[in-house]
Amino acid sequence: MSACKDQDPRIHGIKTKIRVVPNFPKPGIMFQDITTLLLDPKAFKDTIDLFVERYKGKNISVVAGIEARGFIFGPPIALAIGAKFVPLRKPRKLPGKVISEEYILEYGRDCLEMHVGAVEPGDRALVVDDLIATGGTLCAAMNLLERVGAEVVECACVIELPELKGRDRLNGKPLYILVEYH
Amino acid sequence: MEKKREMFAGENGLQGDPRLKAISEAIRVVPHFPKPGIMFQDITTLLLDHKAFKDTVDIFVDRYRDMGISVVAGVEARGFMFGPSIALAIGAKFVPLRKPKKLPGEVISEAYVLEYGTDCLEMHVGAVQRGERALVIDDLIATGGTLCAAIKLLERVGAEVVECACVIGLPEAKGQCRLNGKPLYILVEPRK
């Protein structure tokens, strides 16, 4: 489900502001760089507005953002829709008691952590990141939230790489994205 | 004659503002993190309090909206939680200042000294233009080493750093009031 199908005129402006950096972090990867989007106040505002328009009035009580680019988009959305913001972080960054969720990388594993007590049973959650690739990180994020009894309403990303089929790894949870990169 | 500028918001235009007390009380202290003796100022509890988080952003926005600031530079990673909302509200661009090897394009780097060893902050080439007026934002200032590196990055590309803004200011920052001559604006002192 992507906003570009709705032909919102703001989408084109957002897509053109994303810079593709070839061979980063390693050969063969076409890296989707959202920092150039952040340099255009109108396009950045449009990005946030599109998410806020979708989620306002849906009773979302928590926006969970994935370190570190999820921290750029998540808080403005949370503030606008009246939700709390919860950072989901790499290991040993959060100072208090945490729960951890491991996930598989191409080579090896990584781990996502959330503060105990930040999210409560019954909280309605939105997960935000800049991009979905294989969906491994988003899956770990959803697991963290569900483990503490929250309901994940949707995952929201600026960019999807559809060929990596991350959408299929979200345990049936809906995914909302603004632009696809093929 | 230049008016003396106090560092803390409570002495600089926001005397008695009840929002400051609520912001301070929303911050959690975690003892002995990341190591014994450090009383870590945890802003994640502030982010859980929608009103207090909104007030934090609003206070910065009210201060900076008429200062002609064209770029807000946020220090990874907690600066990312405050900077973008401020940038959006004042019509400025947001530039992330990151740890090494995170930014994908061509970068400039600035090394800075830690208690033990050194670290490095990076900024994308071309993100900031000569003559731009910049605000630097982070959640907390301790020794000022990271903020100093941030200021240097911006000045190296010809930007003017108007001010550095932090939610929390540790005692080591007091009496500095300025970093390399740049003014510092802080909302609250650390909790005990």
Q: Can you lay out the helices and strands and say which pair or pack?
A:
The complex is a heterodimer of chains A (182) and B (192).
Chain A lengths: L8 H9 L1 E4 L7 E4 L1 H4 L2 H15 L6 E5 L3 H12 L2 E5 L9 E7 L4 E7 L8 E9 L3 H12 L3 E10 L14 E6 L2
Parallel strand pairs in A: 3-4, 3-7, 7-8, 8-9
Antiparallel strand pairs in A: 1-2, 5-6
Helix pairs in contact in A: 1-3, 3-4
Chain B lengths: L17 H9 L1 E4 L7 E4 L1 H4 L2 H15 L6 E5 L3 H12 L2 E5 L9 E7 L4 E7 L8 E9 L3 H12 L3 E10 L8 E2 L2 E7 L4
Parallel strand pairs in B: 3-4, 3-7, 7-8, 8-10
Antiparallel strand pairs in B: 1-2, 5-6, 9-10
Helix pairs in contact in B: 1-3, 3-4
Give the distance, in angstroms, between the N- and C-terminal Cα atoms of chain A: 15 Å
Instruction: State the strand order across the main sheet of chain A.
Output: 4-3-7-8-9
Order of helices and strands of chain A: HEEHHEHEEEEHEE
Largest sheet report of chain A: 5 strands, parallel
Our Rg estimate of chain A from Cα atoms comes to: 16 Å
How would you describe the shape of chain B? globular
Straight-line N-to-C gap of chain B: 37 Å
| Average pLDDT, all residues of chain B | 93
The helix content of chain A is: 25-40%
Subunit structure (chain A): Homodimer.
Subcellular location (chain A): Cytoplasm
Enzyme class (chain A): transferase
Keywords (chain A): Cytoplasm, Glycosyltransferase, Purine salvage, Transferase
